[in-house]
Write a structure and sequence with these properties.
Blueprint lengths: L1 H18 L17 E4 L4 E3 L8 E6 L4 H16 L4 E6 L5 H10 L6 E4 L4 H5 L6 E5 L5 E6 L3 H15 L1
Parallel strand pairs: 3-4, 4-5
Antiparallel strand pairs: 1-2, 1-5, 3-6, 6-7
Amino acid sequence: MFVKSVLGALCLLALSLTVQAEEGTGPQVGKPVPNLIGRTLDDQPYLLKKDLGSPKVINFFAVSCKPCRVEMPELAKYERRFKGVKFISVHALDENPAIVAKFVKSLKDAPSNIILTEGGLEESFNYVGLPHTIVLDSNNIVVMNLVGYTEDNMLDLASQLEKMVK
């Protein structure tokens, strides 16, 4: 009986460890996303926990990130294609708003919702590099994480969004 109890406990422990998100891969799929607090480029407050009711794509970027410069116009194209999905680009580092605004204007296109933060998001959102993209359902439950910018990631994102807006 004791051996069965120990084996059962070990199986539960192993299962719980495999369910946790790997370090740097984003918040755990199937769980609520951490809250995000920031300000829009026009200095309005933004709280993710109060932004419910529609699926979202949250993309973390920085003005110094070269792949972000390529990815953001593609995200803007998806924003027009998937009208029921809210796209939010979050500047992941503490930066002067004028510099972020200048960066966004320098792009050929960008998502319409830009959020500024004071940085320090890597730990709470469990990412290690930029860009990092998170897909949320309408209740802010994590559906997907995309690490970095690749053509495959963009195709995976489109496929996921097609399923969500049907």
